[in-house]
Write a structure and sequence with these properties.
The complex is a heterodimer of chains A (307) and B (78). Chain A is α+β, with helices and mostly antiparallel strands and 307 residues long. Chain A contains 8 helices and 13 strands. Chain A is globular and about 55 Å long. The chains are: A alpha+beta (307), B mainly alpha (78). At the A-B interface, helix 6 of A face helix 2 of B.
């Protein structure tokens, strides 16, 4: 089976304070902390691109695990903010890292559900092609598409990138997925004319309604009970949405990971950023649940088991 | 006779846990003037939609800012 061997991360050092925007948006610090869950937003330099962030995440991965780049057989980037329209960002990353010409490279266009969707796609792709090692990047620098005067989005999103080393020898493997879309509502979270707009209420309603069902369906499909999940990793859309899902599923809040206070909602990078901190703590037999949701509107849930 | 009572709406607000004490709420004053923030209001509207099987369009929200207005509105929708 293809599993997660290690995760490298990059969060830009520059942080923009939400507290500085309290007056501008007529809000208060308690709302930032307890509802949005973002006190600072990580922000890349204006000249940096998605591929630059990916390369930085790769540097972190190399610090965490010895890796021979010549053995990488696929390079996949999840992004909707590519460096350029043509070519795909994975090709640029492939070139920047000097990967082998036999290494397959492609992008996956998904947002906040992208990491879990991509785990399903890339692990199946690698399995079908008989590949041993692959790199799965997430990088969606939203700072390029945010209107700083839009309260619905200006306080939420941060820039970051991750890279997951997928390896047939790794022992943290997905044992099932639940994937879906509600394309009829695609306009509720959309980028037009290089500017993001979000109907926060519609996205909240979608998430509150669909994610608990996705999780319940997945657990039922796998014959698992909620008590068998050691920890829960939901996309860090906001503290309010993570709290809402926790409540609607009747979960112990202590088992639900939340941490975006110092960098913001990093789209497809939010789940791997959290997971990277916990990989070393997992024991054989542990099961964790990941669920991403957002742009599309779409969702993707999976259970990972440590074998 | 109303199908949905003030008490039922207060029960839903209490379950949503968005105010300290629902008994203290002024039924004619906007909820956002009584400490309910925009996210809690979205959550409350979602709960109302789910409880009564109704859809509340964004365009209707401005007209249902207090408890009495919510009661009247829900009764027109069910």
């Amino acid at each position: 089976m293809i599993g997660i061997a290690q995760i490298g991360c990059y969060i830009p050092a520059t942080k923009k304070s939400n507290v500085d925007l309290l007056d501008k948006f007529a809000t208060n610090e308690a709302f930032l902390r307890d509802k949005i869950g973002v006190l600072k937003r990580a922000q890349k330099q204006p000249h940096e691109t998605a591929s630059d962030l990916c390369v930085q995440a790769m540097e972190d991965l190399k610090q965490r695990i010895e890796i021979d780049l010549d053995t990488i057989e696929c390079c996949v980037v999840v992004t909707q903010n590519p460096d350029v329209k043509i070519p795909h960002t994975a090709a640029i990353v492939h070139g920047a890292l000097g990967l082998a010409e036999t290494c397959a490279s492609f992008d996956i266009s998904l947002g906040c559900s992208g990491y879990v969707y991509a785990l399903a796609i890339v692990s199946a792709f690698m399995q079908a092609q008989g590949m041993s090692k692959g790199l799965l990047f997430t990088a969606d620098p939203y700072s390029d598409i945010i209107d700083p005067n839009d309260k619905n989005t200006a306080l939420i999103f941060g820039d970051a990138a991750t890279v997951t080393l997928l390896d047939e020898q790794a022992n943290l493997c997905a044992v099932g997925f639940d994937l879906g879309s509600k394309g009829a509502d695609y306009k509720k979270l959309i980028c037009e004319n290089n500017q993001l707009s979000m109907n926060g209420r519609a996205v909240f309603n979608f998430t509150a309604a669909k994610v608990p069902i996705s999780v319940t369906n997945l657990l039922r499909k796998l014959n698992l009970d909620k008590t068998q999940i050691k920890q829960w990793y939901f996309h860090q859309g906001s503290k309010y949405i993570v709290d809402t899902i926790t409540k609607r599923l009747g979960l112990d809040p202590a088992l639900v990971v939340f941490d975006m206070y110092q960098y913001g909602n990093t789209v497809s990078s939010s789940i791997p950023l959290l997971l990277s901190q916990d990989l070393a703590k997992l024991q054989v037999g542990d099961k964790i649940l990941l669920s991403g949701f957002g742009v599309g509107l779409s969702w993707a849930s999976t259970v990972l088991e440590q074998f | 006779m109303s199908k949905v009572s003030v008490e039922k709406i207060l029960e839903i607000i209490a379950e949503a846990n968005i105010v300290e004490d629902v008994k203290e709420l002024d039924h004619n004053q906007a909820l956002d003037e009584q400490g309910v923030d925009s996210l809690d209001l979205s959550g409350l509207l979602f709960n109302l939609e789910e409880e009564f099987g109704i859809t509340i369009p964004d365009a209707d929200i401005a007209g249902i800012q207090n408890i009495n207005a919510i009661v009247a509105y829900v009764n027109t929708k069910i």
